[in-house]
Amino acid sequence: MKETEFLDNSTDLQKSRIRSRYRGINPDLLEVIPAKPTEGLYNDDIHRRVAIYARVSTDNPRQTSSYELQKNYYEDYISRYPNWELVHIYADEGISGTSLRHRDSFNQMIHDCVSGKIDMIITKSVSRFARNIMDCIGNVNKLKQQVPPVGVFFENEQIFTLNPQSEMSLSFIAAMAQEESHVKSSSMNASYEMRFSHGIFMTPPLLGYDQDEDGNLIVNEEEAKTVRLIFFMYLYGYSTQQIANLLSKLTRPTKRGNTTWNSSSVLGVLQNERHCGEVLAHKTFTPNYLDHKARKNCGDCNQYRQSNHHEAIITPEDFVAVQRKISNAKYGGSGVPELHVIPDGALKGFVIINPRWASFHAKDYRTASEEIEKKVNDFTKDVKVNPQNGAPDFRGYEIARTEFFNAASKITVTISIDGMKFGMDALQKLDSIPYVELLIHPHRHQLAVRPSKKEIRTSIKWATAADVKYHPKIITGAAFLPTLFELFEWNTEYRYRITGIRRKKDNETILLFDLHETEVLIPKDKIQKFCEDNNLPELEFTSVNMSGYRGKVVAYPLTWAQSFGSGFYQYTQNSPGSGIDNEGLWNVTARGNPYYGNEPQPHPKEHIEENLRQLLEELQKED
């Protein structure tokens, strides 16, 4: 027999056996044991412990009648069935149904079901139970899996979840309930947008103000005393907790009548712009209508500001000063922040960096420096200089970049968004002192380092002692490093290493770093990903074999490939030290002058102190 004929016969035999097996057996030889009948909702022979769930959408007192009507109705409803026992009526007031957060009664009801205390839940509708399809179906399935299973009866829709045919209709109605919430949320957001765009703002109760019949804010002089006291105390130097302690001692009431204050309630008063007569709408927004979590509006949707909206209790100048002080407090800063610019001498136009002040941006540093310089010079253009008679002609010669040499001694600083660290030689050039001041010139793209003392407000500890010898330490700068990266248009994912020089005169020494062209330390994996994304062949390179820089590749500006360095005359004109002392005045220890620019300035300290004293005397008499 051929092989193909054998295979055909084998296949026919297998099919014949399968047909024979599926003909079944004689029904008289098979005993059928019936399953328990599906539980009907109104089975008279089943005892059910029943819970009622009710939810009203607001906690307005007028909604109390809605709750009471539901309560009375379901008590009568359950009393019609002798085999039903009312366990409890669970109710949430003023809580949205799109999320389980804060729905304490609902969550307690589910817990009681899992604990075996409830056999069935009755609620008015699917939307009352949940407006989130995941919560609705998830909890229904969770209850069905209990032993014995717990059913939910939705009265309006006549759906009982222990009925096997209920799943499809429940899923459809739950999806409709969720979409209804979505539509309502979108309509509400559109309503807010229309109101705000026409200058119609909501005016919730606010300490220091009452509302007239049109909802306008009118100063309440008695409450305004508390507001002024809070602002003046904070400007004078008291912490929010110290202010809260004093207000509690004086039994000054909050807007809700509480006489116990805490740091958060004081901070809430200090940060509310309405106290200076201004309104800012859309400070927060809710991106997800299902979880209702408010997020800070960082340009995600329109904001609307109106100045002079109502009578101010605090001047806008004092309010701005308070906001800056609050911003700096989280970095350990104290007092009202100010930018200080060196007015003359070798460091003219340099701005002092305060390591604990975060309220200034790149443009603030630029305008502060411009105020002193009065003009911005282009330090990057080529300089054409002819040699003087009798002097050597160095045109065509270049001063090689120090980065190309593996010198034993090199003044360096490495800067990342997480911190900056100077090399050991930098410390030694400043006689290994522990504290320094950092200064930047935004337009020259220069960083200066000069000796300082611990007690100086802007001093930074750049070294730590170990074995009677100072070593460089990482300078963390969450308050100012992001500003530096913005100023010099650096990538926050990279590290930048800069080589500097020392300048010394009359026993005064400074370090200068040119930030125009820097070495860039790029993580190896980012280069590999760039090659993959752009279909480039994998590059061969050597990673930096230094502590803290392993796994990174040193990159140089493309212009460096075209030359060994700067032209001789260009270097002498534009090097980091070329502009130093060009006016014949060294004075590198000069203190900076405060720069105010166009920013509003708070009242002087004497004015704040006098008002604070008068307020305290008046309030203590009332107490």
Overview of the structural elements:
The structure is a single chain. By secondary structure, this protein is of the alpha+beta class. The protein has four domains: 48-180, Resolvase, N-terminal catalytic domain (Rossmann fold); 209-329, Alpha-Beta Complex (Hect, E3 ligase catalytic domain fold); 351-517 and 567-589, no CATH class; 519-556, no CATH class. Strands 13, 15, 16, 17, 18, 19, 22, 23, 24 and 25 form a ten-stranded antiparallel β-sheet that branches. Helix 8 (240-249) crosses helix 9. The longest helix is centred in the N-terminal third of the chain and has 31 residues, at 167-197.
What descriptors fit this protein?
623 residues, alpha+beta, Rossmann fold, Hect, E3 ligase catalytic domain fold, 4 domains, ten-stranded antiparallel sheet, five-stranded mixed sheet, 27 strands, 32% helix, flat
- Tell me the total number of β-strands: 27
The low-confidence runs, each spanning 5 or more residues with pLDDT under 50, are 375-383
Major pleated sheet: 10 strands, antiparallel
Mean pLDDT: 80
Cα distance spanning the termini: 118 Å
Radius of gyration: 38 Å
Helix content: 25-40%
* Proportion of residues in extended strands: 15-25%
Structural class: alpha+beta
Number of helices: 16
Write down the domain tally: 4
